[in-house]
User: Which sequence fits this backbone?
């Protein structure tokens, strides 16, 4: 990456066995949704997460949709969702004609404020959708206690947090179902892809059937229910397996880059970084910065061919979910949060250049 090139906010690094495995799949003719790479990727991913079962699918949104369906959530049900997340988290609740009920996030995790969940629980509440935003684990202990008390299911949206841990347990393995995305900008990618992980055999079987048009696993072309075609292809899984082989290296590089950003901006009083909750191990899907001068930073970096992105918009500020409810913490983060270049391809020089520019803004 030379100085004259754009520094992207995210970019995949396909330097391992991707080409070899994809070539192999092509040579064998297994390019559709059957083949050894699907099984291998699923098995290795389950191992990585420390769960019994994993069910691949075609993106992170469909992973969440499969989870919501498998848990039997539907018309008239309510699902608790953090006010600050990517829109897919809330959309899948609507896909099944249930209602997402938003709860503000907290400063300590940027995730759903467990202390504010209880007041939103009604007789219709069926589940809590937890999001480990930007790789920061949610406060699972309090959330699981509430789920137990009110007999609610817990779905973990781990799209941004593969490899993160809460009390030495990998995210995704803590609630009833964990959902992952392998979109091109995620920590590991298959281009488009997703995965549902669980320790519950019944839920696993249900999701596996639903993603395959509801077809009976023992009787071909016999459909007990209406399902979807949400299958991952062997080509995607071939890339995914190769990416997974490098995940520890990727996570380590991201951690080093985060430290570098923090070090070079430590004397800058107008910026702060993401929280690192006790008992949790964060991963750095995105390097995050808070600054009242957010828009100035974005503009200056953009003028220097450095891509950034603002934080997500608060869900109820957008047309599909518009309400007048106030979520002060989510609103503040959304207003001042910025994602800095976060690709594993970043060089130390890139980070130095970026931080030097940020430090010129007074
Ligand atoms: C990326 C993402 C998703 C959706 O994943 P896709 O693979 O893009 O469908 C869902 N939730 C969160 C929090 C995400 O960041």
Assistant:
């Amino acid at each position: 990456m030379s100085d004259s090139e754009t520094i992207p906010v995210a970019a995949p690094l396909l330097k391992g066995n991707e080409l070899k495995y994809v070539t192999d799949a092509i040579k064998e003719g297994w390019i559709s949704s059957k083949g050894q790479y699907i099984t291998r990727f699923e098995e290795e991913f389950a191992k990585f997460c420390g769960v019994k079962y994993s069910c691949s699918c075609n993106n992170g949104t469909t992973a969440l949709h499969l989870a919501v369906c498998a848990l039997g959530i539907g018309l008239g049900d309510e699902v608790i969702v953090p006010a600050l997340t990517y829109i897919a988290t809330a959309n899948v609740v609507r896909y099944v004609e249930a209602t997402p009920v938003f709860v503000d996030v907290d400063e300590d995790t940027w995730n759903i404020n467990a202390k504010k969940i209880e007041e939103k629980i009604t007789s219709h509440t069926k589940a809590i959708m937890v999001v480990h935003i930007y790789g920061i684990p949610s406060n699972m202990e309090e959330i699981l206690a509430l789920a137990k008390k009110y007999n609610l299911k817990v779905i973990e949206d781990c799209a941004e947090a593969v490899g993160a841990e809460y009390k030495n347990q990998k995210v995704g393995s803590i609630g009833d179902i964990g959902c992952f995305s392998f979109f091109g900008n995620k920590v590991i990618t298959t281009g488009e892809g997703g995965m549902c992980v669980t320790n519950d055999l019944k839920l696993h079987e249900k999701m596996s059937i639903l993603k395959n048009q509801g077809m009976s696993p023992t009787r071909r072309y016999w459909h007990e229910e209406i399902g979807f075609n949400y299958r991952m292809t062997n080509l995607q899984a071939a890339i995914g397996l190769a990416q997974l082989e490098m995940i520890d290296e990727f996570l380590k590089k991201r951690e080093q880059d985060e430290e570098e950003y923090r070090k070079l901006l430590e004397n800058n009083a107008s910026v702060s970084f993401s929280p690192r909750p006790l008992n949790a191990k964060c991963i750095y899907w995105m390097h995050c910065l808070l600054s009242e001068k957010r828009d100035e930073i974005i503009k200056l970096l953009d003028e220097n061919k450095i891509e950034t992105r603002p934080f997500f918009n608060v869900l109820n500020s957008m047309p599909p979910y518009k309400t007048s409810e106030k979520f002060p913490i989510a609103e503040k983060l959304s207003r001042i949060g910025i994602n800095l270049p976060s690709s594993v391809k970043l060089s130390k020089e890139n980070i130095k250049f970026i931080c030097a520019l940020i430090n010129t803004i007074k």
Q: What stands out?
A: The radius of gyration is 21 Å. The pocket of pyridoxal-5'-phosphate is lined by residues 59-61, 85-86, 88-89, 131, 157, 159-160, 181, 183, 194 (CB under 6 Å). The CA atoms of residues 64 and 179 lie 6 Å apart. The mean pLDDT is 97.
